[in-house]
Structures
1.
Amino acid sequence: MIFRAFLLLLAPVMARADELIAHIDISDQQMTVLLDGVELYRWPVSTARAGKRTPRGIFIPEFLKRMHYSTLYNDAPMPFSVFFAGNYAIHGTNDLAHLATPVSAGCVRLDPLNAETLFNLILQEGLARTLVVIED
């Protein structure tokens, strides 16, 4: 029932063909990137580990930062950060061995090369034309 309601909410968004969408599937630990309704990329991600939370919903990115260091987690490097909900971001990680498993404190981690690709796509398309969609 909840999933059906989410799909009804998401349908108008997914039907638009004039946006960049970073769709994160928590259960599959995977991001699909669509531009103008066409799938460009499918990448493994890492989201929140047990006891932590990655927010679900539809977000417009708030700002980009090419190199950020976490003020919450021992200055951990967060290359190609796309902040979408306060302190939550999509960003590159050096912990490539754990991609596709939930190990983060809540952010969405990507291979740094993929994070750079997404970052540059958002720069090209603009924050206002970009959506971050996160679902179970």
2.
Amino acid sequence: MDVLVDTQRGVSWDYILADGSNDRACIVEAGMTTDQIDFMSYPPHHLANGILKPVEELLKNPSTPILKGLMVRWNDYQYPEDYDHLFNQALVDDYKRFHPDYTYRYNAADFGETGYVDPMYTDKNCPSGYYFAPQRELRDDLVLVSNHFVIPEMRLCAMNFWTQIVSSGEYDDIQWRYDQLNKELLDALAQGPLDADKALEIIDFLAPYGEFPDYYFQYWEKDKKPLDECAIQGSVSLLDLKELTIINHYGFYTDEWVTISLKRYLV
């Protein structure tokens, strides 16, 4: 953790840290390295001085320590519910004022442990980045991340106007992937501890042979192709921190998974 805190950082990023020896894990929500974050300088003026004005009082007691521009969500992090209950409905209503085609109606259940802001990946219910994203996972043995900040203080940093421009059109995808992965994990954990096969099935849920086959072709290809022509964007990896193995899937979707034993490289 000290390495991340002290490193000179210039962009925002989500980092996953886990230790198989003590069964602890966290998500590091990191911005640029700074001794002090002016959280309220990021939202638009009319929000910072209107709907979000009460946040100034909440910021006096951060939900987790602020460490040189980053905050950490440990597996037992307690999300401060005030942010959702106090602000999200007003933020949704405010967004409607400027976007007459936006039809989503705020529903508190959508922000609960098993809710969805977007029931399907084709839906467009997120008010851009102008909302406090819910933390779905409430179990102490589970921590989850896609591509967005969840810690409410760090969410303020995502409300900058230019951030909305750069990330335009991606907020719904990011939120839906987080929400769907949450459902996949909770459904599986309700049946007992995960084994490697089930974990692989879950992390591969967006593959073109999975539960949502059209997702791949909507985002990565204009026309459907045979699986041996469908490239894996990056890689899909499952890490076993006790056995020190990494199971990787890369190349094309018909390629075999490859297992790497870290014990052969660690001294």
